[in-house]
Write a sequence for this structure.
């Protein structure tokens, strides 16, 4: 791969950088722009600078990865427009920022890919959904998939409108799982377990169940059936969770609210 320019090396950008290096990308092929000295990587052979103005004038990156916070984009993008003129593809992982938003600031001819990763990327177990803008070649799309795939699975969609429900489901989804662990632990404590023990049981149960779901070829529904004995304790709990007023309608409302908010933030 030709030179890669990473704009922002916080939690997500840093996780992606670690994934690229672990996959064998040469540090010399990567330039990082990161204003925070604490987050700026110190990797032998890798160029890391504070601002885009310090990027070597000779750099002609194949892909510019935009990993800064959405609220910082307006400040960052003007200094990057020149790379689009040189043929770079801009790969954004900023939540809520649309292809139109980037085209307005980087130029109508800029080649753009919008992606939505999630936080398990930090342990290379994330999933990213991406949508290509017009003019992005199959080769460029494959290059972007290689970069995103360093931190987990990658799924492509053709309709950018689907990025709102994607954000609601997988982008925000880790928080729902963490809340599930909190709720399980709280319920266990109310039944008499020590809070620390209840949280340990909930945490390891959720983590282990996720790993089983990851490794198993069975569907989530089948795995649920496998652990449910007729008339047993699990069946008693599922009778509450799967009732008409149980978990599903709560998730329906929650994801609808998140998807709606994603549309609002996109303007």
């Amino acid at each position: 791969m030709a030179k890669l320019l990473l704009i922002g090396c916080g939690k997500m950008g840093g996780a992606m950088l670690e994934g690229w290096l672990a996959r064998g990308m040469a540090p010399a092929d990567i330039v990082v722009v990161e204003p925070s000295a604490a987050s700026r990587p110190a990797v032998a052979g890798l160029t890391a600078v504070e601002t885009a103005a310090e990027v070597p004038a000779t750099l002609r990156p194949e892909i510019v990865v935009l990993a800064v916070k959405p609220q910082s984009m307006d400040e960052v993008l003007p200094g990057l427009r020149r790379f689009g003129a040189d043929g770079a593809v801009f790969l954004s992982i900023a939540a809520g920022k649309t292809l139109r938003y980037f085209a307005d600031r980087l130029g109508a001819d800029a080649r753009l890919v919008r992606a939505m990763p999630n936080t398990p990327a930090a342990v290379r177990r994330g999933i990213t959904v991406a949508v290509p803008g017009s003019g992005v070649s199959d080769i460029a799309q494959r290059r972007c998939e290689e970069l995103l795939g360093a931190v987990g699975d990658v799924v492509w969609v053709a309709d950018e409108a689907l990025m709102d429900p994607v954000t609601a489901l997988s982008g925000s989804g880790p928080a729902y799982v963490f809340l599930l662990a909190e709720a399980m632990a709280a319920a266990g404590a109310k039944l008499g377990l020590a809070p620390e023990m209840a949280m340990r049981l909930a945490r390891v149960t959720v983590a282990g169940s996720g790993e089983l779901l990851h490794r198993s070829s069975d569907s989530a529904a089948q795995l649920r059936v496998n652990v449910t004995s007729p008339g047993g304790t699990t069946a008693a709990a599922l009778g509450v969770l799967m009732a008409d007023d149980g978990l599903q309608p709560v998730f329906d409302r929650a994801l609808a609210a998140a998807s709606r908010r994603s549309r609002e933030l996109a303007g």
Q: What stands out?
A: The longest strand covers residues 126-132.
